[in-house]
Write a structure and sequence with these properties.
The protein is α/β, with parallel strands linked by helices. 21% of the residues lie in helices and 34% in strands. The strands form 14 sheets. The protein has an 8-stranded parallel beta sheet with strand order 30-29-28-35-34-33-32-31. Strands 39-38-40-41-44-43-42 form a 7-stranded mixed beta sheet. A 6-stranded mixed beta sheet has the order 3-4-12-11-10-7. The longest helix is centred in the middle third of the chain and has 29 residues. It is globular, with a radius of gyration of 35 Å.
Length: 1102
């Protein structure tokens, strides 16, 4: 639309564009020109275009301003969209008086037809064929409306007048890329339609107009002359000139002719043009027919695109449409040859070469014979290894020959990418960047990269079936290309990878039937194979576990037989409240095995069809809480075995989010698999920075956020850049350290009584976890099935609070833990095991004498073996919950203090603890390096003192990773830092045993290009000149002789105990000259530069 409006016959003086953002989502204004003063000052414009706009994004005052603008004489063009007209969330009530149609609520109507035009001024004489329209909005003509175009007898383009102004409604919208030919919105007719529409809305007087225009043959063979017909009409007889021009895609004029027309009111004429006879002149060309007056002024114009071809030609196809490749990868090319000659050659020869921007070959050429089989040529497949080339654009040139005579030339542009060494190390993932057109996609991906996103997650791999979702496949491939060109890793998110998964009905087909396996082969195997083509991380979201529930069982004969076979009884009814504990336990075990079977089947298929694809599942706090009889049932410990990683869903409640992060971290740590966290940028959710730093405190290894603004529960999400600010940019600077540090075990663990939660509506874990976390600043959640002697060994204390039932094996492990020297915190002297019988604690396990803690809460202490037990009264966790709810700060503080002192008396101290209750801190570590993460949960700025375990964190210096500023570490028997945190925000600080002081960079003076490498040694040194212990983030910038930065040689790197040695081979087409290596460190504030002379010589000067 923008290019068409800019190409009007009369130049546009002002063209202001208010962009709206979104893909299949309601739209929100992003950058309306501030000079336009909103929509209140429309008088300066001739017309307003509302394209795909939901009225909900315009205020009532703005809608009334548009209506008044039309009534005063302005023009309005309203074009439909996936969230406008009948799909809109807003109402057209305020705009209805000026529209020539009544907008009807309802789904779009599939037509897939070419429009039929009337002789209305906006539709007459458009180039035929008009192109296809996919969908039409349901609208109803008002009295006096003027029908300009229809599609299958449904109104498509309708014109009308209101007051002194005019309105045109186009009740459809583009569902294709701007380069996809054959559709009305991307065909030859659309820009002419817009020109005519603008002219009519402006009430311009036409001296002459096209009544018809046709160019039947749009595929023209080189050297041929083509003819078209047109009919011109005007109110009076005037002398005219008809000018015909042919230009190629580069804008070069290949034909220009002018013919004079005799003065008369109607002209029925033929126009002609000739295509030069040049085998290299193939491609898209443009024919323009202009009507000029005697003075040479343009009165009317039509332009169409044609494809110039050779009689014997070749078409190229790159697998999955991908045109961006890393050095060392393989480009899969398919050649399709055809011939219009009566005596078509039996054999053709295709020469394939990869050329640089100067037309020089950069790889060994390939030759392939193409033979004719019957009436067609066979498709020729070639695998083209991409050599180690300089990053940039290259041309893939295919020359088709008949014998030695050149018959056709086809070119494809390829992009060779820089393989950054730390690409996507700590994934900062954004779902989005996939739009209906290339320009918006490119802009969106660049915007995400600028916001610090290093991994782009797209909605599923391209369709593996040719011709199925062709436009979606092309746009996904283009989004992937944009992402890798921006230096981003790739991921895919796809819900319902399990066939038949639904939120409202049982799984169909049932996972226990042969039909399910057939559905896997038919639907999932091709998707996994397509995903395996992505040269990076591929994240498949198996499902949202909130869909996984006992009520989702189909209870078919296969389910009934499986339950009978495993448990010896009939499958219980759906009413969970009517089941006894034994039935609930059996049903829970069956649900677990049922969904394990489904998830494991997908994982097995992945192993067969796509070994490189990563399968991730999404879990939330319902893995550990049952909020009622109908709550989703989730056994994360079992289901996590069927995936490669887990993402923790965002929670609006901070305590539930902490519990979910802690619990899933424990499960994934036991499986030695990563876990990440999702961020929610919708209104009412945790602030993105608050949620992100909370997840990092709890050890998350990746973060993911949805980019597209969605309406969730009628609340808008802002665009990602505005929502997260510089959050991802800050985290990207620390990504190497985040990727190589791990959160150690907390010093205290609370047991998760799975056997109790699985059989009844237990909600006691959350209050117990909240109390322990608030009191100690850290706590792990240990699944009772993981409670073994080995798993309990890292902890100083274990808590069993709020539980009435515990597995017999877990209780025995806890008893042995105490006897070896551990501390047990409990609130009930008697527990039941999974069979309902009392747990057998050792004799004299708990103390007899009670000591008052606060109010009615008491504690009973006793030594047992080398350890201790501390038995609080059963009201401990509920009392703390009530104190927090009632705002009783005294009671809450005393209860926290009782727990903290009990643990401290046993010599158990947290890794890190903040002085402010609203500030949360956590430690991540690797050898000689400690990363301190902190987050402020308050609405006010907080200055908190953080005390570290001096015995474990042997640091003498600390630095803010965001600013590089040093912090004082006070060590007078303890290590203390003072942090200042913004509201609902956090930060990262790195600590080392010795302070880094300066840098040193060692490089050779010269190196050879042919088969050589650019190597360097970077050192971070202490003040004494020794390599600084620990892992330090340094930035290496390598610039080649052309002045271009080469990220494959540098980027953010990590030293190992102060030393980094790197070597990267030169590209085969690198040029000799002076290379520059710049080493910088934000902590020492030092930078070192060295130059290396790259020569063609074989010798190397040290």
């Amino acid at each position: 639309m923008e290019s068409a409006l800019c190409g009007l016959g009369r130049p546009v003086e002002e063209l202001h564009i208010a962009l709206f953002r979104g893909f299949r989502v309601p739209l929100e204004p992003v950058n309306f020109d501030p000079r336009a003063d909103g929509l209140a000052q429309l008088n300066r414009y001739d017309l307003v275009v509302l394209a795909g706009v939901d009225p909900v994004v315009l205020s009532p005052a703005e809608q009334l301003a548009v209506a008044a603008f039309v009534e005063r004489g302005g023009g309005l063009l309203a074009i439909g969209g996936s969230h406008s007209f009948g799909n809109a969330e807003g109402t057209y009530q305020l705009l209805d008086p000026i529209l020539p149609v009544k907008v009807l609520r309802g789904l779009d109507i599939e037509v897939n037809a070419m429009p039929a035009a009337t002789m209305h001024p906006i539709a007459r004489g458009l180039p035929t064929p008009l192109g296809y329209v996919g969908k039409v909005h349901p609208v109803e003509l008002k009295p006096g409306a003027q029908l300009a175009m229809k599609a299958r007898d449904l109104p498509l383009a309708v014109a009308g007048e209101c007051g002194y102004g005019r309105v045109v409604v186009l009740a459809s919208y583009p569902e294709c890329d701007e380069s996809e030919y054959g559709w009305f919105f991307t065909g030859d007719a659309f820009d002419d339609f817009l020109r005519s529409t603008v002219s009519w809305l402006r009430k311009e007087q036409e001296r002459v107009w096209f009544e018809s225009f046709s160019l039947p043959n749009r595929q023209v063979v080189v050297g041929n002359e083509e003819f078209g017909r047109l009919k011109l009409t005007g109110p009076e007889a005037v002398a005219l000139q008809l000018r015909t021009t042919l230009t190629d895609a580069a804008g070069r004029t290949l034909h220009d002719s002018t013919a004079s027309l005799q003065p008369k009111a109607a002209h029925d004429n033929v126009f002609a043009f000739r295509v030069p006879d040049d085998p290299k002149g193939r491609g898209v060309h443009y024919v323009a027919v202009s009507v000029l007056d005697a003075q040479g002024r343009e009165l009317a114009r039509r332009d169409v695109a044609i494809e110039v071809v050779n009689p014997t030609r070749v078409a190229t196809e790159l697998a999955y449409g991908r045109r961006a490749f890393f050095p060392g990868s393989v480009a899969h090319l398919v050649l399709h040859a055809s011939s219009d000659l009566r005596q078509a050659p039996d054999e053709l020869v295709a020469d394939v070469a990869l050329l640089d921007d100067g037309g020089q070959p950069v790889s060994a050429p390939k030759r392939r014979a193409i033979r004719r089989r019957g009436d067609a040529y066979e498709a020729a497949e070639l695998a083209l290894p991409v050599p180690r080339l300089r990053p940039g654009s290259y041309r893939l040139r295919v020359e088709l020959r008949v014998g030695e005579e050149l018959a056709d030339v086809a070119c494809e542009q390829l992009h060779v990418l820089a393989s950054s060494p730390n690409r996507g190390e700590f994934p900062l993932i954004a779902d989005g960047g996939f739009h209906l057109d290339r320009a918006t996609t490119d802009e969106a991906v660049r915007g995400l990269a600028a916001a610090g996103v290093n991994t782009l997650s797209l909605p599923g791999p391209p369709s593996p079936t040719a011709g199925r979702g062709a436009h979606r496949e092309a746009m996904l491939a283009y989004a992937e290309e944009c992402a890798v060109r921006a230096g981003m890793a790739l991921a895919h998110h796809r819900r319902r990878l399990v066939p038949g998964l639904s939120t409202v009905a049982p799984l169909s087909p049932c996972a226990l039937t042969p039909e399910f396996r057939e559905a896997l082969e038919r639907e999932v195997r091709p998707l996994l194979a397509a995903a395996a083509k992505t040269p990076a991380l591929c994240l498949q979201e198996l499902s949202s576990q909130t869909w996984v529930d006992g009520s989702q069982l189909c209870r078919c004969p296969a389910c009934q037989a499986a339950f009978k076979r495993n448990f010896g009884s009939q499958l219980p009814p759906e009413d969970a409240a009517a089941l006894d504990p034994a039935q609930r336990r059996a049903l829970g075990a069956f649900v677990t095995s049922y969904w394990w079977h489904a998830f494991a089947a997908v994982a097995k298929l992945r192993d067969e069809a796509a070994a490189g694809v990563k399968l991730w599942a999404t879990f939330d706090s319902t893995s550990f809480l049952r909020d009622g009889p109908g709550a989703p049932y989730c056994d994360a410990l079992v289901w996590a075995r069927a995936c490669d990683g887990v993402e923790v869903a965002a929670e609006r409640d901070l305590a539930r989010f902490r519990l979910s992060l802690t619990g899933h971290r424990g499960i994934m740590s036991s499986l030695e698999k990563p876990f990440g966290a999702q961020l929610d940028i919708a209104e009412g959710a945790l602030a993105p920075a608050e949620a992100a730093y909370t997840a990092i405190v709890h050890g998350a290894t990746s973060l993911r956020v949805a980019d597209n603004p969605r309406f969730l529960f009628f609340k808008r999400q802002p665009p990602l850049g505005a929502a997260v600010g510089a959050l991802f940019t800050r985290l990207a600077r620390a990504a190497p350290l985040l990727a190589h540090t791990r959160r150690p075990h907390a010093r205290v663990a609370v047991l998760f009584p799975f056997s109790e939660v699985a059989t009844r509506d237990s909600r006691e874990l959350l209050p117990a976890f909240r109390l322990l976390y608030d009191a100690l600043g850290e706590v792990d959640i240990l699944h009772e099935r993981l409670a073994t002697d080995e798993a309990l060994a890292p902890y100083g204390a274990v808590a069993i609070i709020g539980a009435e039932q515990l597995a017999r094996r877990a209780a025995a492990a806890v008893g042995a833990f105490v006897e070896r020297g551990g501390l047990l915190l409990a609130d009930r002297p008697q527990l039941r095991d999974e069979e309902g019988t009392p747990a057998a604690w050792p004799e004299a396990f708990f103390g007899e004498s009670e000591t008052s803690v606060f109010g009615a809460i008491t504690i009973r202490r006793r030594r047992y073996g080398a350890g201790r037990t501390a038995l609080f009264s059963a009201e401990l966790a509920p009392a703390y919950e009530e104190a927090v709810r009632a705002g009783d700060s005294l009671a809450a503080r005393e209860l926290r203090r009782a727990v903290e002192q009990t643990v401290a008396e046993h010599g158990v101290r947290p890794w890190a603890r903040a002085s402010e209750q609203e500030v949360e801190v956590g430690i991540r570590s690797c050898p000689n390096t400690w990363l301190l993460a902190a987050v402020n949960h308050s609405d006010e700025t907080r200055a908190a003192q953080v005390e570290l375990d001096a015995a474990a964190v042997r640091a003498t210096c600390a630095f803010d990773l965001a600013t590089g500023e040093p912090l004082v570490v006070h060590r007078q028997g303890r290590a203390v830092l003072t942090l200042r945190l913004a509201p609902r925000d956090g930060g990262l600080w790195v600590l080392y045993p010795e302070r880094p002081f300066t840098l040193r960079l060692e490089t050779p003076a010269s190196v050879r290009l042919g088969g050589g490498s650019l190597g360097y040694k970077a050192l971070v040194l202490t003040e004494s000149g020794h390599p600084a212990p620990g892992r330090h983030v340094v930035r290496v910038c390598v610039v080649d002789p052309m002045g271009e930065e080469r990220p494959e040689h540098g980027g953010l790197r990590l030293t190992t105990d102060g030393v980094l040695e790197a070597s990267q081979p030169f590209a085969v087409n690198d040029r000799p000259g002076r290379w520059t290596v710049l080493l910088s460190d934000p902590l020492t504030r030092r930078a070192v530069r060295r130059t290396v002379e790259a020569t063609e010589d074989r010798g190397v000067t040290p």
